[in-house]
Amino acid sequence: MWAVARRPRWIALLLLALVLAGVFAGLGKWQLERSIANGKPLPETTETRRALDDVTQPGRAAPETIAGQKVTVTGAFVAGDTTILTGRSGGGTYQAVGHLVDAESGASLPVVIGWSDQRRTAEAGGERLTDGQELTVEGRYYPAESPDQDAYTRGEFSAVAPARFVNTWKAFDDRMYIGYVVADGTTAKAADLGTIADRAPTRDIQFDWLNLFYAVEWVVFAGFAVFLWYRFVKDAWEREQEDAREAAEAAGSRGAEDAAEPAPAHR
Asked: What one-character-per-residue DSSP string does the chain give?
């Protein structure tokens, strides 16, 4: 069989199979690296409090790596722009979200101030901070939520969605942080609201089994590419062997027929 495999045609096909196997193996390695990377815990730098503008900039989407980052931001809340959300975790039936204008950048920032079980109380608490005075808010910064996450019921909303706030806030100059801050107890107390129960992000390692499955699948494909070449060569060799046997049998049959014919008579 290896005599057949050494022919130029099959050597070229072997090279192609090896190239495909290499590509498949590379894809398997990439999927394996993703499964391991996805299993790494988040960095613990989120517990070091930083100025908001050192963490992100207006208009920049917040990556998951800074979700829950402790931040400090100074600014003034805008009167009449308090938004009430419901159906959220962290405490209370209603949570007040204020429109803070950052004193340094001038950009708008949604701030979840605190909670109450009464809608009026939550709204009054948010407006209590809109006296024009600058406040320093400490809390955790999170990526913006999508309006699609809203549990919309009877005109009520649940997502901290800057994409929706741009249409509801009265005072807005098109500069906004693509994220929001959940304020700590100091701000909630100033608003006479309950403090949102917010804690450090979990750092459990969750191995990505789906990516591992894909990695194994690509390795199988790589092996199959080489195996397919082997089957093609073996099939070609078996066909040649069969052809040779048939040719030998045909030659033997003709010889037997020639031997069975009577010799011509001599006069």
From this structure: -HHHHTSHHHHHHHHHHHHHHHHHHHHHHHHHHHHHHTTSPPPGGGGS-EEHHHH--TTPBPPGGGTTEEEEEEEEEPTT--EEEES-SSSSSEEEEEEEEETTT--EEEEEEEEESSHHHHHHHHHTT-SS--EEEEEEEEEPPPGGG---BTTBB----HHHHTTT-SS--S-B-BEEEEE-HHHHHHTT-BPP---PPP------HHHHHHHHHHHHHHHHHHHHHHHHHHHHHHHHHHHHHHHHHHHHHHHHHHHHSPPPPP-
Domain boundaries, the chain: 1-39+208-234, 47-190
pLDDT in tens, 117-161: 999 999 999 999 999 899 999 999 999 998 876 666 666 889 999
Distance CA 65, CA 177 (A): 16
Question: Environment class of residue 31 by beta-carbon count within 10 Å: exposed (0-12), middle (13-18) or buried (19+)?
Answer: buried
What is the Cα–Cα distance from 123 to 140, expressed in whole angstroms?
21
pTM: 0.62
Q: How far apart are the C-alpha atoms of 233 and 182, rounded to whole Å?
A: 67
Distance of CA 224 to the CA centre of its chain: 29
pLDDT at 30: 81
Lowest mean pLDDT among 223-227, 247-251, 252-256: 252-256
